[in-house]
Amino acid sequence: MQWTIQLKDKQIAVMSEKLNSHLVLFSSVEKEVAAVKQVLGDVHCLVGEKENVVADLKDKVQRISVLEKDFVENLNFLESKISAYQLELRSRARIIYELKNRLQDEKLNSSFQPHLEELNKTLLVKDYAIDRLTSENQVILLPMFLISGCLEDPN
After folding, report:
1. HSE-up of residue 82 (Cα within 13 Å, Cβ side)
2. Which of the four pLDDT bands, split at 50, 70 and 90, describes residue 76?
3. In this predicted structure, what is the pLDDT of residue 4?
4. Alpha-carbon distance 96 to 92, whole Å?
5. DSSP secondary structure letters along 29-44
6. From CA 153, how far away is CA 41, in angstroms rounded?
7. pLDDT tens-digit map of 2-41
8. Residue 67 CA: distances (Å) to CA of 56, 58, 62, 88, 102
9. Residue of 123, 142, 122, 144 lying closest to 134 (CA atoms)
10. pTM score, two decimals?
């Protein structure tokens, strides 16, 4: 009987040891579960933060897209303005060139105007002199012609 009691005590001691080791094992599993839950919570926080970062980046990409569209529109508008200004500048340059040529012509004309007037006066005087000499010549030649006609014709 003592032997059975000792055997039972040994069995109880072994079972107690097994129970203690299982309790320690359960305690360590609970600690692992708590650690895994903590890591899982941290992962959820990180995922939430990353989702916020992604949402912010999507907003920024959207704003950049809008800004790019506005930039392209402004660029096209400015290019068309530049083209219009270039055409206007070419037109004005052509007008300036024409006016410059006219001014040069007028300057030449006005610088030669006194000479032209003097030449016109001289031409008028010469024309008058030629007309006068021609009429005088005719006046002189007519009597000579008549005299020569009389001299040749003895009848």
Report:
1. 6
2. very high
3. 86
4. 6
5. HHHHHHHHHHHHHHHH
6. 156
7. 888 888 889 999 999 999 999 999 999 999 999 999 999 9
8. 16, 14, 9, 31, 51
9. 142
10. 0.45
